[in-house]
Amino acid sequence: MRPAGLSGSLRTLGALAVAGALAFAPASPATATTPVTTPVATSVAASAPSPSRPVTAGTEVAISPVDLNGPAISTVKVTVTNAGPERMRGLKVTFGGPVGWAVQPSAVEVDGVLAPGASAVASFRIQVPEPRAGFTVRTFTATATYRGGDGAGSATATRTQRSGTPLPNLAAAYNNVGVTDESDTRPGDYDGEGNSFSAQKLADAGLRPGEPVTALGATLRWPDVPSGTRNNVSAAGQAVALSGKGSRLVLLGSGVTSGASGTVTVYYTDGTSGTGVIGFPNWSFDPANAHGATLVASSDGRNRPSGYGNAGIAYRVFAHSVPLDPAKQVEFVVLPANGNVHVFDMAIAP
């Protein structure tokens, strides 16, 4: 029986200058030959940006660190280890990165067999764009399909790498004036039409600057800033530092339009992450439990550019939550990429 090897040859990777970006020549399912190695560790070294975590037991898949210093073509190596009791045949490895990042080749096929405990390394080249300003999290995925081995037929691993630094707190992300004083309503623009909550009416409903707000088991605080200044986040995927352990992450906010929902991603200090979908009803008229939200406070009327108005109509604030792994320490939170979601505070419930 001949030893396993990676078949085929890698097509030339063309670098074409198009508007200052790098472009690939067409991809083909092949790569340079890499011999089978002895068993290798499936976890990334401590100096790597983040761990590459095997998702399934038995067959182990690990992704090497990706050089994000673009624009450039980075080489990425995917190591597949046959940790099953049987010989592995028909091994095929695919690799992908963020949407729009071209990868070549499209797949690597291993010719021959992998004995139990043996490994193969597949090489890929990925187009890395120029770094973006601010904080970003990039996710890379590798999948191996095969026959034999552990009998599962496939195994997948992901690697996340970060660039930049999360904002230190939610106040650093404030980008919207949602509350004004009835004596000066002009700075407000909560809904994109110059309207805002009335500070006086919110106080009547129990929401006062800097004071605690209890919702869904968490203790939050109403923004401690003067009326007429930025006091909430119109969500756009901002990454915000948050530390603690608990059962759930609670967000205090309200919606603009009936489409105020999106995915919250929680990152833990061990490099893992979790997600949950949250949503808030429109600040007025929508059912109070839309998107699964919980009503926190209801104020009478709102401030318009011309002054206070719409008396008798409720303008409301809600809470929603996503589950946490209670055994893990939260490091930071990425808000939904939906500007209709407005967040006044967030906290961890025990």
Q: What is the fold's blueprint, element by element?
A:
Layout: E1 5-6, E2 52-54, E3 60-63, E4 72-81, E5 88-96, E6 103-104, E7 108-111, E8 113-114, E9 119-128, E10 136-148, E11 154-163, E12 179-180, E13 197-198, H1 199-204, E14 212-215, E15 218-221, E16 233-234, E17 239-244, E18 248-255, E19 261-268, E20 273-279, E21 294-304, E22 307-323, E23 330-334, E24 341-349
Parallel strand pairs: 12-13
Antiparallel strand pairs: 1-7, 2-11, 3-4, 4-9, 5-7, 5-8, 5-10, 6-9, 10-11, 14-15, 16-24, 17-23, 18-22, 18-24, 19-20, 19-23, 21-22
Largest β sheet strand count, sense and barrel closure: 7 strands, antiparallel
Q: How many distinct helices? A: 1
Instruction: Write the element-wise H/E pattern from the N-terminal end onward.
Output: EEEEEEEEEEEEEHEEEEEEEEEEE
Number of strands: 24
Low-confidence stretches: 1-51
Helix content: under 10%
Q: Nutshell version of this structure?
A:
With 350 residues, the chain is an all-beta fold.
Explained architecture:
It contains 1 helix and 24 strands. The chain is mostly beta strands and 350 residues long. The strands form 6 sheets. Strands 1, 2, 5, 7, 8, 10 and 11 form a 7-stranded antiparallel sheet that branches. Strands 16-24-18-22-21 form a 5-stranded antiparallel sheet. It has a 4-stranded antiparallel sheet with strand order 3-4-9-6, with no helix packed on it. Strand 10 and strand 11 form a beta hairpin. It is elongated, with a radius of gyration of 26 Å.
